[in-house]
Design goal:
The chain is of the alpha+beta class and 162 residues long. The protein is built from four helices and seven strands; from the N terminus they run βααββββββαα.
Length: 162
């Protein structure tokens, strides 16, 4: 099973792609604790989410499978409890300064539906935050999840414990 979210962003495809690929830019609206490296093919990058000051960051390793500049980023990560899921980010130029971004996540099993709903929300938020960052230079994530997600809750969900 898979889901897909999509949104048009008013910005040149090069700027939109770079806002996802570059760790400094990605940290400006999504990975608020930082990203260990650019999303370059064949690398493993750690995404850090620091929504709770004074508490450990949530660490999400992502394996970068494929990158075609200004077109595609493919990642695999532990989206489900007991296996990895595949995330595909497609970038399509729809005008001189307009880009359609589609993000899909596949590899879901029937037993993973609860996790898939959470990830669908997460990618919907990410793509919306990307739009705000590229078009207006603002960080929608700032303060949005303070106190809502903790590292130990993330670890427990990834292990399948309730």
């Amino acid at each position: 099973m898979k889901f897909q979210v999509q949104l048009k962003i008013q910005g040149p495809i090069e700027d939109v792609f770079e806002a996802v690929h570059d760790p400094g830019k990605l940290s400006g609206y999504f990975t608020n604790g930082g990203a260990s490296a650019p999303l370059s093919q064949g690398t493993t990058v750690e995404w850090l989410f620091a929504d709770n000051p004074g508490e450990p960051d949530i660490v999400a390793p992502v394996n970068v499978i494929q990158v075609i500049p200004n077109e595609l980023i493919v990642l695999e990560w532990k989206g489900a409890v007991d296996h990895e899921t595949r995330v595909e980010m497609n970038f399509e130029k729809t005008g001189p300064a307009e880009t359609l971004v589609k993000i899909s996540e596949s590899g879901w099993r029937e037993k993973d539906l609860d996790h898939s709903y959470g990830n669908c929300f997460g990618w919907s938020f990410m793509i919306t935050a990307l739009k705000a960052y590229v078009e207006y230079g603002i960080n929608l994530r700032k303060g949005a999840f303070t106190g809502m997600h903790k590292a130990e809750d993330y670890a427990q969900a990834q292990s399948g414990a309730n």
